[in-house]
C-alpha cells in the first residue's frame, strides 16, 4: 500500500556530480599509486566504483527520508509524541519491481528519536513494539532504548531502520514493506545406531510402492507427530522439569513459553516449553498432569473450569487457576484487499477459514459467527487450516475470509498487509456489545492505526486475553519463581516478543475468567493491591 506523502521527482541527492567525480578520482589514484595498477585496470575500477557509489545514493536524499519517517511517527503516535533529533542517510539498495513494473529501492538510515512525552509501548491500548519496529523499517534488533516499563519524556531511542520507495511519474513515493526476522539455521542432532535403524524402517514404509501411497504417508506422519510429542513430554517429566505448554512454533504463545522456560532454567529451575495446537489442547494437558503450566485464552479457560463444550466429556476442572493475565489477543476478520465484503454478516454463503479445531481461535470464530446470526451450515465452505493456511487459501482465491484470534501485529498478517493483499473488517458496535455483554471473556478493543502496514485508521474489534494457567496444586515456590521471572527478570522488549512486551503486573488481573491461584494472590499483594481493588483498565478495553 502506498502512503499519501510524495517526494518531488527532481530530488537532490546531496552530492554534486563534480564532487562525486572528485571523490572517485581521488580514491582510484590512491589505489593505483599503491598497487601500480595498469591504466586499463584503473579505468575498469573507476567505472565499477562509480556505478557502486551512484547506486548507493540513488533515491530520495536525507531530507526526503526524514520527512517520511517523521510523517509516519506523527500519523501513528500524534504530532507531540516523538521528535527526530538526528537522522543520517546511509545508502540504498535495489528491491524487486512493483506489480506495475515500477522501480523500487530501499534506503537505510540511522536515527536518534527523542520522546516528547511519556510513551509506554507495553500498554494494551497503544502501538506496541512490534508495530513500531515495522513502521520504522527496522528489525527487532534494530531499535535500542525502548523500555519494558515505558519511556519518559526526554528518553532517546536509537534506530537502525529503512524506508522503501518506488519511482513513478510523480517521483519517489514511500511504500509499506514487511521486514522479516533474521533467522539462524539449526542442525538436527546426530542419531545413534538404533535411531538410524528406526529411521530406515520408517523410510522404507514411506517409499514402499503400491496404491494408497499418499494415505500411507499421511497415517505415518500423523502417528510420528503424536509419538514425538508424547516422547518429549515423558522425557521432560522423567527429568522432573517444570513443563510449560505454549502453542504453534511460529506463535507468541510458544515464544513466551520458551523465554519463560529459558529464564527459569538459567535461575536453577529445570524447565521446558512444549509446543501444542493451542488453548484446548493445553488445558487437556494441564488437566491430565502432562504439563505444569499452560498459556490459554481466558474464554476457553472459563469453559474448561465449568466443563462446558468442548470439555463436557471431561467435566468441570474446578482446580484450574490463573497465575496472570498476560496480553490481549484481538480477533481478526481478514478479507482480500479488493473484496466486496464489508461486514461479518456478509460472510453468509462465503468460504471461511475458522482455524484449527483444537484452538481457542476456532471457538472464537464460531462465537463471532453465531453473534452475527450465522451458523456454520450457512457458510459456503468451511476451512480449518489456521491463519497461515487460511491466508494461502485467501491469496489463491479458494477462501473469501479468514477469522483468527492472535496477538497483534501478527507477522504473517504484516507481510500480507505490506503486499497490499488484505484488509481487516471492523466489527460493528452492536456485534461487539453482543460478544462482550455475555461475560465470556471478550473485551472491546481498537487496533491502533499503523498496527499493520498500510492501516490508516483504527479497527474496532474484540479481544480475549492470554492467561498463564496452572492447577491449584502447583507449589507456592514454583508460582513465585514463575511470576518473578515473568515480571522482574525477562526483558521481553529486548527479546523481541511483541506480546511479551505487554506483560506487566498492572494488567495481570484484567480479563480473568478463572480464580487466581492462592500463591498468585499473595504475590500480587506485595504490590499493595487490596483484594477488592480493581486494576486499572486500559482505555481501549473500556465500554464506549
Automatic annotation (TrEMBL):
<keyword id="KW-0675">Receptor</keyword>
<keyword id="KW-0812">Transmembrane</keyword>
<dbReference type="InterPro" id="IPR011852">
    <property type="entry name" value="TRAP_TAXI"/>
</dbReference>
<feature type="transmembrane region" description="Helical">
    <location>
        <begin position="12"/>
        <end position="33"/>
    </location>
</feature>
<dbReference type="Pfam" id="PF16868">
    <property type="entry name" value="NMT1_3"/>
</dbReference>
<keyword id="KW-0472">Membrane</keyword>
<keyword id="KW-1133">Transmembrane helix</keyword>
<protein>
    <submittedName>
        <fullName>TRAP transporter solute receptor, TAXI family</fullName>
    </submittedName>
</protein>
